[in-house]
Amino acid sequence: MTTALEREFKNPLTQAEFQRILAQYPFKPAFQQSNLYFDTPAGDLKQRRIGLRIRCFDTKGEQTLKISHHDQTHALTEITDPLTVAQAQAGQLQANGQVAAYLEKIGLPLNLLQPLGLITTKRRQCILPIGLFVLDETTFPDQTTDYEIELETQSAKHPITSTAWLAQLAIPQRPSLNKIQRLLKHQRSLV
Fold first, then answer.
1. What average pLDDT score do residues 99-123 get?
2. Is residue 129 within 8 Å of 165, Cβ to Cβ?
3. Where in this chain does the record put each CYTH domain (predicted)?
4. Nearest CA to 68 among 178, 172, 147, 164?
5. pLDDT value at residue 158
6. CATH code, 2-188
7. H/E segment holding residue 19
8. Which of 70, 137, 142, 151 is 20 to 30 A from 28, comparing alpha carbons?
């Protein structure tokens, strides 16, 4: 189990911007991950600005709560419990970790949660002095693919802002939906 505080700056990209950035930076080889997201039928996690997912990699899995801070600093607290690949592929939230303990503490036992949907992301990472630079190519249930960049830093004192970072990349700042919001948007397009 890990608990971490991090700041995330995210921005959608066009496919051309994605290709340009991919060519400009020394990203490690891409790896694939699938994310299964959860909430209650009433959207209790969404109302509390909390995201819950099971993530499956080739060799491991994890269940993670992302808890947004309400001060608009792009700060999140992440609580992550390790899972085996088999547990992650089964898509069942595990009751024996810090994620379940936190949910119980806020009055949301696991039996109230249901899967929202599954996305698959091809992720590339590059470590920069300012933090972890991530390039995502995500496919949704309607087979739509979108592109996103992300900068993760654990320091709230780092001087870079999302505006300055995007200016360095020559990328316009765009409104950004999180992956759960994008998943729900693409699921509605299937109906």
1. 96
2. no
3. 4-191
4. 178
5. 58
6. 2.40.320.10
7. helix 15-24
8. 142
Comparing 1-5, 12-16, 37-41, the range with the smallest average pLDDT is: 1-5
Contact assessment for residue 124 and residue 27, using Cβ atoms and an 8 Å cutoff: yes
Joined tokens for residue 43: 């959207």
Scored b (16 or more CB within 10 A) or e, 86-117 reads: ebbeeeebbeebebbebbeeeebeeeebeebb
Residue 35 and residue 119 in contact, taking contact as beta carbons nearer than 8 Å: yes
Give residue limits of the domains in the chain. 2-188
* 76: nearest Cα among 127, 3, 132: 3
Residue pLDDT, tens place only, 133-182: 999 999 999 999 999 999 988 766 655 677 888 898 999 999 989 899 99
Cα gap 39→46, rounded to integer Å: 7
